[in-house]
Amino acid sequence: MKVRTRFAPSPTGFIHLGNIRSALYPWAFARSQGGTFILRIEDTDLERSSQAAVDVILEGMRWLGLDPDEGPFYQMQRMDRYREVLREMQDKGLVYPCYMSVAELDALREQQMANKEKPRYNGTWRPEPGKTLPPVPEGVQPVLRFRNPIGGVVAWDDKVKGRIEISNDELDDLVIARPDGTPTYNFCVVVDDIDMQITHVIRGDDHVNNTPRQINIFRALGQEPPVYAHLPTVLNEQGEKMSKRHGAKAVTWYRDQGYLADAMVNYLARLGWSHGDDEIFSREQFLQWFDLDHLGKSAAQFDEAKLKWVNSQHLKAMEDGALALLVEAELKKMSVTPDARLPAISGLFKDRCDTVLQLADWAQRFYGDVQVNEDEAKKHITDGVRPAIGMLAKMLETVPWTKEDISEAVKETLRANGIKMPQLAMPVRVLVLGTAQTPSLDAVLAASKREVVLERLKKA
Fold first, then answer.
1. What is the pLDDT of residue 13?
2. If you write DSSP's letter for every residue of 374-407 in order, what string do you get?
3. Distances in whole angstroms, Cα of residue 85 to Cα of each of 117, 143, 317
4. b or e along 178-207 (b: 16 or more beta carbons within 10 Å of the residue's beta carbon)?
5. Are residues 257 and 391 located together in one domain of the fold?
6. Which residues are annotated as a binding site for ATP?
7. Which helix (H) or strand (E) holds 5?
8. pLDDT single digits (tens) 182-206
9. Is the CB of residue 407 less than 8 Å from the CB of residue 446?
10. What is the pTM of this model?
11. Are residues 176 and 82 in the same domain?
């Protein structure tokens, strides 16, 4: 059996990290098993669905490299297929028309709650042998309800939650088509999963209550349901379910803030799955290791500080040339045009950055004016050190422009003036890059242009 998984978001709001994890795991499982990953957009909620939300889903998945093998498929474009299956179910007596009005349903629920009973449809219009149905009201378009099995249990072995059994008597007859004939969510999902031959459904545990209903529809249609894995919720830093209402950010926000796609995949993978104690791993390692047996059973909590740390580790490990391409894209947004020095500059500063944006902020200091930190300037650029700065500037006019030769010029200046490295390095860093906190002085100067360094040192 070839593995076929799917990600089926509803485009009713932007996609955040909690949502995208539900794409990452089925993508990873399909890739790890040599299977097929399908993207399906469940856009039947016409009032709340939007093209903008679809665009963010596609953009976020593209950035993270979660490319589908098939799709995107849109449920609204499959209405003819759903109606065809509905007709087949009507012909087989698997569904029936129900004329109970909304007011009647509300009254029924109120009565049941007053009696401390579970609110549910009571089967008034369900045809049974020997049962007399109420007279059909005039001018009322019925809904179609699915004839849920009576008695027995619906059960499945969930790959995360273990064995789950629900009594069929707990489930009422689900509405699967509205009065205007449009099909409802649980029905569409089953038809899609059958048609797309989905073998494994990996999704959030907010769908657990839908699963027994969907399994019964599968079996009514003569199909075996897929394997289910229901993922625990992702919580925000306050311990609430991650959502837009509780401050969750769109996936693309992290891209725009300079996070790396591979770091995001690494971090999201660990929000509910583990491979021993491994914290930092490549995309390739993740796909080699991933399985459904090591999914976590309890809710994971998002931690922005941890995400930044994971991102910093991937930045450090990244090859300088590849990193420079990302930095260049950010510099161009600042109207800065970099040159061949950018890979070396990126390599020089990547150890002290959490994001590509921070790295770009350092890099742009090599390509334009710098804002000198006034407090650091007052502290480090003193009358006592100005002669040494002047001597270094004079020596830097003629030395070969290499890190080694610049280092020798710095050492000679220290010897001649009888001062220690920090007394010279701090003010020179402030003048050249605007701050005293930089990598080694010789490396910073070598990555700068000679004429720029000389011009900035004259400001002492």
1. 78
2. HHHHHHH--TTTHHHHHHHHHHHTTS-SSHHHHH
3. 34, 16, 53
4. eeeeebbbbbbbbbbbbebebbbbbbbbeb
5. no
6. 244
7. strand 4-7
8. 999 999 999 999 999 999 999 999 9
9. no
10. 0.91
11. yes
Residue 159 and residue 27: Cα distance in Å, rounded?
16
275 with 325, same domain? Answer: no
CATH number at residue 425: 1.10.10.350
Q: Do 269 and 171 reside in the same domain of the chain?
A: yes
pLDDT value for 248: 82
Q: Which residues neighbour 272 within 8 Å (Cβ) at sequence distance 6 or greater?
A: 21, 25, 231, 232, 234, 295, 296, 300
Per-residue tokens: 268: 């999201």
Whether residue 401 has pLDDT greater than 90: yes
| pLDDT at residue 314 is higher than 90 | yes
Q: What is the CATH number of the domain that holds 54?
A: 3.40.50.620
- Domain-terminating residue out of 257, 277, 303: 303
Query: Is 281 part of any domain?
Result: yes
Bridge pairing between strands 153-158 and 162-167: antiparallel
Give pLDDT tens digits for 212-259.
999 999 999 999 999 999 999 999 898 888 877 777 888 999 999 999
- Give rounded-to-5 percent helix, strand, coil for the chain: 50, 15, 40
Indicate whether 138 belongs to any domain. Answer: no
How far apart CA 49 and CA 293 sit, in angstroms, is 34
Task: Give me the domain span that covers residue 246.
Answer: 1-92+154-303
357 in the same domain as 378: no
- CB-count exposure of residue 144 (10 Å: 0-12, 13-18, 19+): buried
pLDDT in tens, 352-389: 999 999 999 999 999 989 999 899 999 999 999 999 99
For residue 345, pLDDT over 90 is answered with: yes
Q: Are residues 425 and 278 in the same domain?
A: no
In the chain, the number of structural domains is 3
Binding residues: 244
Residue 143 lies in a domain: no
The answer to whether position 134 is within a domain reads no
Residues 198 and 164 in one domain: yes
Coil vs helix vs strand at 74 = strand
DSSP state of 124: T
Of 196, 268, 191, 267, nearest in space to 231 by CA: 268
Residue 352 belongs to domain with CATH number: 1.10.8
Count of residues in the chain: 460
Are residues 328 and 385 located together in one domain of the fold?
no
d(CA 303, CA 268): 11
